[in-house]
């Protein structure tokens, strides 16, 4: 493959466009350095670390404008762990799941594999579109993803009509949406995510915004397993009530990666200081609009998601003409320092996937696309 050198003058200032892990701002790294002698390598149950966790929880509550009674809970393991935690601690008997990509499918698979739950009712759509569950008799929990990271599809978040009368909970995976896409938290009972996307941190942690009804459900399930003959087993790691109890003390059940907490605290503070959700989502909208307009105008690229209303504002998926091999293009970009614009591997399309989270400068998005055009012209 011939080497193509992109002129320095048109390269992005920062060349990271990953869909997760995503760009970490230099100021966050500075905060990490400042914590090196005061927090890193110390106990997570002592006040300095508790202060960081408390700041995260307060900052998240402000950022999402939490309704009365809602609370921010942190736990070990990432959103993947929360899928299993939801099975153990939130779904009573049966869930209905929207499935329209790799990550929404994995959540549904966790539900299907839980031996004490009935098989989930699936509402499925092809990659590039979405399917929000509909009201279903006997279902006690509705689950879907606000943003399907694998396909760049953004789904609406709302309470399914009739679900409250049914006593059902609304669980929304927000890993690549939280912090980038507006949401009315009151429409959910558990809005959960990992912090390595819009919140510019590392993996291994989950954050969940829980309604009073979700907390009550978790406590009720914990009480029920003490009954003689109960089939459900909740290991401590998957106990949502244990996570809630620890979060209220500004700590996690098990030892967290303290660097992750430091990076997250700095990012939450930065987002709030700049204007919170309104500012962050507008910034992501600006960047995603740049990408989609470029693709619409391009002779060799087009948005993968055909419905403009379903196009993600945080993860842009762009199909390329067969005459432009994505693997070759991505390799050349990487040789020039431009990182992580690969399409999702399991989707298997000739595609770019561009993360436009709030840490990414819109000017860098424009520069990235200019570099793509430059390379394609010379391939």
TrEMBL record:
E.C. no: 2.6.1.52
InterPro entries assigned: Aminotrans_V_dom (IPR000192), Pser_aminoTfrase (IPR022278), Pser_aminoTfrase_mycobac (IPR006272), PyrdxlP-dep_Trfase (IPR015424), PyrdxlP-dep_Trfase_major (IPR015421), PyrdxlP-dep_Trfase_small (IPR015422)
Known cofactor(s): pyridoxal 5'-phosphate
A single MF term (Gene Ontology): O-phospho-L-serine:2-oxoglutarate aminotransferase activity
GO biological process: glycine biosynthetic process, by transamination of glyoxylate; L-serine biosynthetic process; pyridoxine biosynthetic process
Amino-acid biosynthesis as UniProt keyword: yes
Keywords assigned: Amino-acid biosynthesis, Aminotransferase, Cytoplasm, Pyridoxal phosphate, Pyridoxine biosynthesis, Serine biosynthesis, Transferase
Residues covered by the Aminotransferase class V domain: 36-338
Superkingdom of the organism of origin: Bacteria
Annotated stretches, region: Disordered: 1-20
Pathway field: Amino-acid biosynthesis; L-serine biosynthesis; L-serine from 3-phospho-D-glycerate: step 2/3
Alphabetical list of Gene3D superfamilies matching this protein: Aspartate Aminotransferase, domain 1, Type I PLP-dependent aspartate aminotransferase-like (Major domain)
Tagged with keyword Cytoplasm: yes
Catalytic activity: 4-(phosphooxy)-L-threonine + 2-oxoglutarate = (R)-3-hydroxy-2-oxo-4-phosphooxybutanoate + L-glutamate; O-phospho-L-serine + 2-oxoglutarate = 3-phosphooxypyruvate + L-glutamate
PANTHER family: ALANINE--GLYOXYLATE AMINOTRANSFERASE, AMINOTRANSFERASE CLASS V
Family stated for the protein in its record: Belongs to the class-V pyridoxal-phosphate-dependent aminotransferase family. SerC subfamily.
Function, as annotated: Catalyzes the reversible conversion of 3-phosphohydroxypyruvate to phosphoserine and of 3-hydroxy-2-oxo-4-phosphonooxybutanoate to phosphohydroxythreonine.
Stated name of the protein: phosphoserine transaminase
Native organism: Bifidobacterium cuniculi
């Amino acid at each position: 493959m011939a080497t193509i050198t992109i002129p320095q003058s048109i390269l992005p200032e920062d060349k990271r466009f990953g869909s997760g892990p995503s760009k970490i701002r230099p100021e966050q790294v500075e905060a990490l350095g400042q914590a090196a002698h005061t927090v890193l390598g110390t106990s997570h149950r002592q006040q300095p670390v508790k202060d960081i966790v408390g700041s995260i929880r307060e900052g998240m509550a402000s950022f999402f404008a939490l309704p009365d009674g809602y609370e921010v809970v942190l736990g070990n393991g990432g959103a993947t762990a929360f899928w299993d935690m939801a099975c153990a601690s939130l779904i009573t008997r049966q869930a209905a799941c929207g499935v329209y990509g790799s990550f929404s499918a994995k959540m549904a698979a966790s539900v299907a594999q839980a031996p004490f739950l009935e098989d989930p009712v699936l509402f499925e759509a092809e990659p590039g579109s979405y399917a929000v569950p509909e009201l279903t008799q006997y279902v006690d929990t509705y689950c879907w993803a606000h943003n399907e990271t694998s396909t760049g599809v953004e789904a609406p978040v709302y309470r399914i009509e009739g679900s409250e009368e049914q006593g059902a909970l609304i669980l929304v995976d927000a890993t690549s949406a939280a912090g980038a896409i507006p949401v009315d938290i009151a429409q959910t009972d558990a809005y959960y995510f990992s912090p390595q996307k819009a919140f510019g941190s590392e993996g291994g942690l989950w954050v969940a915004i829980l309604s009073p009804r979700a907390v009550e459900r978790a406590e009720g399930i914990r009480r029920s397993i003490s009954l003689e003959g109960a089939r459900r087993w909740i290991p401590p790691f998957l106990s949502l009530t244990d996570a809630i109890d620890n979060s209220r003390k500004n700590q996690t059940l098990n030892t967290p990666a303290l660097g992750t907490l430091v990076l997250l605290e700095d990012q939450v503070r930065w987002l709030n200081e700049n204007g919170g959700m309104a500012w962050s989502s507008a910034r992501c909208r600006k960047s995603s609009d740049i990408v989609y307009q470029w693709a619409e105008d391009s002779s060799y690229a087009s948005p993968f998601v055909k419905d403009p209303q379903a196009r993600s504002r945080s993860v842009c998926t762009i199909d390329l003409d067969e005459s432009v091999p994505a693997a070759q293009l991505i390799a050349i970009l990487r040789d020039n320092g431009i990182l992580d614009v690969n399409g999702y591997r399991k989707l298997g399309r000739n595609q770019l996937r561009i993360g436009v989270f709030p840490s990414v400068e819109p000017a860098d998005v424009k520069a990235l696309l200019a570099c793509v055009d430059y390379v394609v012209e010379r391939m």
